[in-house]
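Section 5.1 Outputs to date
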Amino acid sequence: MTLRKPILFIAAVGIPALLGGLYLSFLPSAQAREMAAACRGTRFSPTNKALGSVPTRAPDFTVQDHTGKMVKLSDYRGKTVLLRFWASWCETCKAEQPSLEALAGEIDPAEVAVLALASDSEWDKVRKKLPNGSNTEVLLDPPRTEDSLIGRVAERYGVEKVPESFLIDRDGIVRYYFVNKRDWRNAATRTCLRSVLDG
């Protein structure tokens, strides 16, 4: 009779603790599955004609910002980069812009850089298409010839039509490649971005 109370106490305390421990042990894998499902839900493309299969190293480039300063992709190493290719003449890009601006306005610029490379030959056209005080870092990516619609860097990334976007981790690896426009306010998109940030 004297052993029964300690055994009941151990059962009452130990079993819930054991179950709680098991539950906690499943959380990381459940979270990883949720992140992977969110990224699949964003309809990313696993391949690219210029880069091959994703993930892959992001080609470095040098382009001009609005002040005339030359900027390299590698300058952002240590941050996650959302690299978006667009153009002033692109109506689909215009439709996507508000959700991208909303995302860029909410994320920590110390962690994430949103770079918008415009396939345009001059800044005047680009400025007319952007809201005042854009939350993205706009860079000029002039086409190779007057007849071409796609910028030189965009061509190196296999972009054929804009908008297209690449999510690059802090080590310079392209993790996801998105063809066409996205709703960057979408919960799945945000969760996918967070998975790259936390990875």
